[in-house]
Amino acid sequence: MTFEPLGRSLSDFTVELDVYSGPYEWLLALILKDELEIFEVPLRELVESYLLARHPDAANALERDTDFAGSAAALILLKSRTLSPAIDADTEGIEDEPLSPEELAERLTEYLKVRRAAEHLKDRLAQNVGHYVSAHTIAPRQGSLGIEPDRVSLAARQAFSRLIEPPVRHLGPITVTLQELAGIILTAIAGGAISYESLTSDMDRLNRAVAFAAALSLAQDGSLTLTQAEPLGPLTLEPAR
Amino acid sequence: MSGQERVPRPAHLVEAVLLVSASPIGASDLRSATGLSEQDLVGALTDLRERYDPEASGIVLREVAGGYLLSTNPSCSPAIERFRQEARPAPLSGAAHEVLACALYLGPLTRGAVSRVRGVNSDAVIRSLIERNLLVEVGADHDAPGSPALLGVTDEFLAATGASSRKDFPPVDSLVTQEELARVRERLASSVTTPPDAGSESS
Amino acid sequence: MSGQERVPRPAHLVEAVLLVSASPIGASDLRSATGLSEQDLVGALTDLRERYDPEASGIVLREVAGGYLLSTNPSCSPAIERFRQEARPAPLSGAAHEVLACALYLGPLTRGAVSRVRGVNSDAVIRSLIERNLLVEVGADHDAPGSPALLGVTDEFLAATGASSRKDFPPVDSLVTQEELARVRERLASSVTTPPDAGSESS
């Protein structure tokens, strides 16, 4: 997985989330190392805590906003990718056909059990943490290890055909700032409500993500109102009343 | 302690062998290395349990993953982490716990099956668990197209959970109450009987 | 963490740290890891000398090369030797197979290159493969900053696979498509170069 390296402007930004508390930069590192699940990270809370910690008058405010918007945009992409249906053959079995109520109940029951078992495992792992083993091991006798050549070939196939995306690099360097987009948004809504879709219809994906962050930011400071009539429905930006 | 003994006592032989292993050693391997009778081994382990009791020692004797293992007392782990200048490994995510629960209780099962049970693609989580040696491919499902690999939990997983075997976990049905299950079915029954043509909002 | 966990005694801290080091640890390193005063350390070592006395234990405390080291009691060495002969080496993980495949097909290559190709930090796996003598540092990449070591597979690896040479393995282009191979090469070559116009962060 690749990521544009963060500038150091956010090195003092720390976050407090249910799943993680500590420096924001480390949060990104944990997500990239798959040690934290992106879909467990509430992006909205993340944006909110950034906005709370924001100092608009600081000397590097612009750089900080840019860095944050850039990484937040990447997180949004990552999250949407994780949540969208898998395309690889192995998981294609996740069917779309509607389930009968019995099947649905069956599945939910099974998932509930897994959920409870997961909680049990979490406690157990926590109780057993901190046992480090001996370093005084002896090397096994030479020649006692057998490696299957087929497994090596299979491993080569797996490692070399894996897609290490989502590539964020192809989005190119950030060429727009939160402030610029905030300006565009404010101009656009001066004439009345506008949907997020139409506002961003001409933008590339990065700008769309930054526009989203900018809209959140403006909503936070009361410059506009964001409305969404139904979950996952269209998002409307209106001038603040 | 009795005076000069030349022949090592059973407990000494066992603790010496345990020192040189970073993974649990089963009773039969301990016997064949030390040449002890079954009875002597039992006696030696009783002595060592006392000697390496968590209340009395910085090194503890653990009975995990079907064998015996010396490891540091968790109460001393901050000193170990300072010595190694290594941070404690990050705890697993909630998703990782779920995947492990699938492998433990429903496994061995394929990646696809894990994703189906959880309702989300679990490949990345599975990969990081394999990387951490907690999950392993234990075979292949030859009945499925492409013979996808079957995943199971490892001995490292058993050691990390302090379990001596897979049987050392409560049965899954004891973790969920009947009332909870009944509630799921009830809620479901009431929600599916409502609009007849709303059928597409599954997600 | 349970509240009633007691503060470990000095000797416990020291013995725990000694368990996780295969080489002697000097007094000052022991003190900085355990946080003990000089006096407490002296007391702890006195306790441990008694606990791990050759007459009383299968594990002994040795004072060598200006440091302290736990090791097996020489009186137990026949048992250790039998254990070594009989111990079956731990099987390789999926991650280990992938790292070996990288070294076999793309090597010699640096640790960083292995991690880039696999898309995940592989340092720990590489360390254990070097310890097991399946990977070895065969030179250094002088074109890269810091001249990182280049890794290749060992003869022991070839012996373990029953291959007489690298040529016994199927050629890489029979395993993956040209397109996939090109992508791997790209990742290999990418090193740390940032696109010229991304340039905000220098380092």
Automatic annotation (TrEMBL), chains B, C:
Protein name, entry field: Segregation and condensation protein B
Keywords: Cell cycle, Cell division, Chromosome partition, Cytoplasm
Coiled coil: none
SUPFAM superfamilies with a match to the protein in the record: Winged helix' DNA-binding domain
Alphabetized InterPro entries for the sequence: ScpB_csome_segregation, WH-like_DNA-bd_sf, WH_DNA-bd_sf
GO terms of biological process kind: cell division; chromosome separation
